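tmp note - RNA polymerase II transcription elongation factor-like protein
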Amino acid sequence: MRLTIEAALTVAVKPMSNVSVDVLPNEGCIDVFLMVRRKKTTIFLDAKETTLVIELKKMIAGILKVSTEDQRLYYNKELMDDSHYLSDYNLNASTAKAQCPAEVHLTLRDVKTGKFEAIEITPLSTPPELPDVMKSAETGGNNSQHVSSDSQNA
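out:
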């Protein structure tokens, strides 16, 4: 019996019993790469353009162990509706690439008050400045020895 890689993966992976995801046919679907951010937490996910927002929330629920009802997702400061597709928010292969994922913000419901928190994103840190010896001549560093023309003529 000869199995394709896809069939072998289907056989090897046990489905999660408490998570059901409805997916449209994947023919022609393109991956969308997302960076889901909340406070100091960043989650990188990839999905299809035809993925529903509720399915995205289910992925997050599996990671953070927070129910979908206690999550809100925002893209470009707009609350994302559970019944809409990612493509409805212009999340596609040209706006959400692997090397530059689209940023989606996550807020959670406060258990005590029952209200959703405000969007709070801790800025990503910036790397320290390069030492002078590592800078190229284009950036103003002095990484090459300079020999004067007088010493070459002697």
